[in-house]
Structure formats: structure tokens, C-alpha cells
Amino acid sequence: MPVFDFERERRRIDLYLPTVILNLLTGTVFISLTVLIHTFGLIDVTHAMKYLVARVRLHGRRSRIVAMISVVMGLFAVMTAEVWLWAGLYRLLDIFVDFEAALYFSTITF
What's the pTM? Predict the structure, then answer.
């Protein structure tokens, strides 16, 4: 029966721990950036929707349709920016060989 080598495992953990901490820090920073993009994006979408509805001066059902379309398109733009942020990180860290693969992975995991 093999003997467990505590010293070898300790050295392995000592090498592994800084990588884990760096990954957690990087993830935390990029999650924070995602939250900021989402927050300010939603604020901008709300302002744009109000401006669009007031500018077009539609009332009733048409106003609601214009508002809904502008909100959906705005949210799509915000989420696209977030997906591209993560794809850029994956490419920067050399996780994927090209940006297209990073963008695909970022999109399907988002």
C-alpha cells in the first residue's frame, strides 16, 4: 500500500493556492464590471425609452409597443456588451485559441 506523502501534497497546494486566489480576484472584478454595465445600461435604456416615447408622442397602445421594443433592444445591447466583455477576458487569458470560440462560449454560458 502506498504511503501518503504529506510534504509533496503541501508543495502542490502551495503552488495551487496563488492561482486559485488570482482566478477568484479576476472573476470578482469581471463580475463587478458586468454588474456595472448592467446597472448603467438599464438606466440608459430607461432614459432612452422615456425620451423616445415623449419624442414620438404616441399614446395608448402604440406608445406601449414603442416602449417595449426600445426596452428589449436596449437590454439586448446591454447583454451583448456583457457577453463581449467576458469573451475578451477568455481570449486575454488565452483560454481559447481565437476570439470566435471565446465569444461562442461566452454567449452560450451567459
Answer: 0.75
